[in-house]
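Before relying on records like the one below, remember that each one covers exactly one chain. Contacts with other chains, cofactors or solvent are not represented anywhere in the record.
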Amino acid sequence: MSRDLIETIFSRRSIRKYADKPVSEVDIQALLEAAMAAPSASNQKPWHFIVVDEREVLEQLGEAHPYAKMLFEAPLSIAVCGDASISKHYWPQDCSAATENLLLAATALGLGAVWLGVYPNDDRIESVRRILHLPANVYPLNLISIGYPAETKEPRTQFDRSRVHRGRW
């Protein structure tokens, strides 16, 4: 059995500093395909992805989100959004699964990325909705800042035996 996937999972770290190099369209396509390979409740696939590489929009998002200052330097952000008219109750879970696939794919491609939470913070939702012109039924779950890493972090596991219960609590 190959441990490549396990090593990719342990290597996925939040990267906030990026080299001045654009992400290729081939890699963007691979990220989106990986995201859309995620499971979703009743296979509804309520996700939408907004690829942002325009400097002006990246900076607006960086200004609007209190923890997204890295977007002032990142060459790319992908907003992961859920359509509540497709899946009223499960879009956050479905879009979270898609986000994790995207983050793991970024690591596998040699890219760095960080998940910037938007939902359920009302101020962040409205700011991102306004900047990206989202319709009322579409909610931004997060912004993913992406680029070639200008920092390195060691692979790790955060396994904690005290959080594991067998059979019952």
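The chain has one domain: 21-150.
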